[in-house]
Amino acid sequence: MRRGAARAGAAVVCTLLAALTGCAAVPDAQGPTPAPATAAGHAVRLPDPHAGFDYQLGGAYPPPAGVTIVERDRTAEPAGAGYDICYVNGFQTQPEDSRSFAQAHPDLVLHARGAPLVDPGWPDEYLFDTSSASRRQALASIVGGWIAGCARDGYAAVEIDNLDSYTRSRGALSAEDNLALAADYARIAHRAGLAIAQKNTAEQTGRLAAAGYDFAVTESCAAFEECDAYAAAYPVVLDIEYTDELGAARFPAACARRADQVTMILRDHDLVPPADPAHTYRPCP
């Protein structure tokens, strides 16, 4: 499971994004969400911004009543409730895979003082080395296989996490490095027939939308006042707020302020299943 590590609170207005992407129209509540054409000319299906949504990275469970959009880890089966999103950690290792990945691909993991460089907030995750075209090509091949697996399993879209790993790389990586790989992921997803979602990193929204990203999955965009940046660029924004950040008391006001294409839910910190006493799931009214 992931939560965004770097936050840029700067507001991005429609006029700024228009130079790169054009402002996305808010979809008609009575009609289907538009399906953008991919680079290969194929259409991908987007989630309905007015449908129920759940974010199940802490463990899969039957979706709550009314939920038809469900995101799960790529190792889990799709929920089959209507629209399934596949989580892929595209710029760092998953905790259970870190050691084996570093052993199999030592040149694709950043190192510092002879050891893999870890995410300070998630010290069991190693940063991928995106610093050269050859390394990005190798990573695109590996992660591309995971993306293709999401399509084979029946997912409709993929969410790529940790684009902002360059902010935790001690200067070894640049935004340009990661954006180049992010563009590769968009092309791979579209070739597989999947929509692709931007994850967090609001300051890169315009460039990711221009690179072919179709919608956004965000964490705490209300708590960090970033929702408008995503809504200006995308027809669908799926946002997860957390009980230990925005909190339950502020959640109703955030719901009332959200743009029409923003679907917002409140979840517990660890995204645990309902059987866990710490579980929280609350949609906007």
Keywords:
nine-stranded mixed sheet, 285 residues, alpha/beta, globular, single chain, two-stranded antiparallel sheet
Question: How would you summarize this macromolecular structure in one to three sentences?
Answer:
The protein has 285 residues and is α/β, with parallel strands linked by helices.
How many strands in all? 13
Low-confidence runs (pLDDT<50, min 5 residues)?
4-34
Q: Overall mean pLDDT score?
A: 88
What is the helix fraction of residues, given as a range?
Answer: 10-25%
Question: How much beta, percentage-wise?
Answer: 15-25%
Rough shape?
Answer: globular
Our Rg estimate from Cα atoms comes to 18 Å
**What is the topology, as strand order, of the major beta sheet?**
1-2-3-8-9-10-11-12-13
* Separate helix tally: 7
Please characterize this protein's 3D structure.
The chain has 285 residues and is α/β, with parallel strands linked by helices. The chain has 7 helices and 13 strands. It has helices at residues 14-18, 98-104, 133-153, 175-191, 205-210, 227-231, 251-257; strands spanning 52-55, 67-73, 83-89, 111-112, 115-116, 118-119, 122-126, 157-161, 195-199, 215-219, 237-242, 262-267, 281-283. The chain has a 9-stranded mixed sheet with strand order 1-2-3-8-9-10-11-12-13. A two-stranded antiparallel sheet has the order 4-5. A hairpin with a 2-residue loop joins β6 and β7. It is globular, with a radius of gyration of 18 Å. The relative contact order is 0.18.
